[in-house]
Amino acid sequence: NAGVTQTPKFQVLKTGQSMTLQCAQDMNHNSMYWYRQDPGMGLRLIYYSASEGTTDKGEVPNGYNVSRLNKREFSLRLESAAPSQTSVYFCASSARTRAHEQFFGPGTRLTVL
Amino acid sequence: AQSVTQLDSQVPVFEEAPVELRCNYSSSVSVYLFWYVQYPNQGLQLLLKYLSGSTLVKGINGFEAEFNKSQTSFHLRKPSVHISDTAEYFCAVILMNRDDKIIFGKGTRLHILP
Asked: What is the 3-state secondary structure (H, E, C) of chain B?
């Protein structure tokens, strides 16, 4: 039981490049989330998916797209990376039967030059 | 609008001393309350949660928190901290009528002094 896994762990991009961050969970959770964490800002929700086939914008969705590929996987895409997207990205999942406890992945540290 | 305020961005405390990390929330509806901990270079993990019932909640690693509805607070306490408690702590709420999103505070960094 791996919980929530994220790939890659580290990434360096040049401005304008694109990339996809991958997230998978093996806990049969319905809901999945993408956050970014910046110093002094706490965690900010980028997008979330309450169930397979649905996605909704969070607090800071601009510059990102997501895909809920199936119940297990939820990917985050940066189409044209900008230095302002330098951050640590966390994926999380939750199941309503667990009173909404969120389980987090280890994070992806992204630097955009 | 709903919000979560952690009043201290950093809290230094000597090893074996007690600590309290403060959290206040603002909401027009009832909430579920959580504390998460983030150790260096790791993701967040649940420390404790309040859903209903007793207002004093006990969590992992000797932490506890008390829900005070009149003061809309959910402060985290530990009677004696250890160097291994060095981490960032996040208070969070979920609205009972909107159970698909969690609102996090900005975090409190706990520094344990030898």
From this structure: CCEEECCCCEEEEECCCCEEECCEEECCCCEEEEEEEECCCCCEEEEEEECCCCCEEECHHHCEEEEECCCCEEEEEECCCCHHHCEEEEEEEEECCEEEEEEECCCEEEEEEC
